[in-house]
Amino acid sequence: MRISTLINQPILLLGAGKEGLATLALLRSRGHQAQVLIAGDHLTDSLPEGTRAIPHETLLQSLTSQTVAIRSPGFSPHHPLRRVLNGWAGEQTTATNLMLAELNAAQIDVIGVTASKGKSTTSSMLTQMLQESGRKAKLVGNIGIPALSQLDEILQDRPIVVMEMSSYQCDDLLPHQGPNYAVFGRLFPEHLDWHGDLHHYYAAKTKLLASLPDGGQAFVDALTIQTLHLHGLFLPAQRAEITLSLINTPHGLHFASGLFLDGDAPLCSDEGMLIPGQHNRDNACLAFATARALGAELRDFQNAVRQFSGLPFRLQYEGQYSGIHWINDSISTAPEAACAALEAFGKGGTATLIVGGQDRGYDYSSLIESIEMFQVPNVILLPESGPTIGQLAQAASFKNPIAPVSTIFHSAQSLSEAVQLAAKLTPMGGRCVFSPAAPSYHQWSGFEARGKDYRSCIDLLTELKPS
Known about the structure:
The chain has helices at residues 18-29, 59-62, 80-86, 95-105, 119-132, 151-157, 167-170, 192-195, 198-210, 222-230, 278-293, 298-307, 335-345, 365-373, 386-399, 415-425, 447-459; strands at residues 11-14, 36-39, 51-53, 68-71, 91-94, 110-114, 137-141, 160-164, 181-184, 217-221, 243-247, 253-256, 259-262, 265-269, 316-321, 324-328, 352-355, 378-381, 408-411, 431-434. It has 467 residues and is an alpha/beta fold. The protein has three domains: 3-89, NAD(P)-binding Rossmann-like Domain (Rossmann fold, 3-Layer(aba) Sandwich); 97-307, UDP-N-acetylmuramoyl-L-alanine:D-glutamate ligase, CATH 3.40.1190.10; 316-459, Protein-Tyrosine Phosphatase, Chain A, CATH 3.90.190.20.
């Protein structure tokens, strides 16, 4: 479905957040004057001029057979309004599909990037590698700025579009009508409340691969393929029309023993790479494999990874205060992310770990194992999930009473209290890592707000002075 086909159609916007308003603005800029209805949760009285809010109970009665519903990604398949629309015979689309239809029609290369964690880092490094190679490249998608708001600029400049995609956006992708290239990083349980269960979450992600047109190319982390196979999802043989490259395998691009390698052939060391962790080197391999297919060379890869300092709230260094190094990893919304944070600083590299957040029933056993493996002496537990982690750790201690380092678990009722406690527990020269391993909602609007709060808590420690 193209924007041009909607100009004379009555429209229903499901959601009036950033995505919905950007969609409306683009339609209006193209001359749309037909009826625009808006449905959603917590709609305010200050809706855009010329639109009308529709109560949930009268939604179907307000739609005509010509109405096209444009859904925002926040509405899960289980949302009451989505269920209502499922009983309606009219057409439905999303802002992401509208964007892809316009870019495909203009023959602009699009790279879709997804993963459970690391997609922002991979997308950013990939964009920088392409730019280092002399290509125009623009990052859009799940980065806070609606992609459709940048469509006209992209159609004029014609860059390669790197589109970061959440599982919500992937879930609505249409077969054979997606990006030309797909980049698929590591998977682990996330957003189970939105998708319903792990199988549906993974299945949503695989729709990015299914959306590739014939001739498309996919660059997939080798462990991700194993994960998908275990859940009976997407076998490469099912899409002989696409080229699938496995990354982070000894036979392809990977990082090991301080070197980036292509099979057995050394490419370069990671000297000068600014962001820590094996997972970020794996992300760099995914980005380079994709950029290389579009003409980037090794020197472009090296320049990009040596300049890329990371993204806000992703193992972000907040500074040294009274001899303590403070790390802000608020983006950590699942146990695997916190495990990666501990791995990034190595054995004995984390003196104090602050964890806990919204309790979504995650399995924290891998985090307990990492705390022991990387010898973390102090762990501060925050509500809601902190007590669950503490109970699991206590049970694990009975199984392994002789651990390399005796970890002491402490409780805090707020982030401010946790930071103050960390200031007392962390020794001079030690590192305090805030990697919550849980979502932020209920207490904060998102991981960005949580990360800013952590930074403010550090600033408010009046007894700490910059070294």
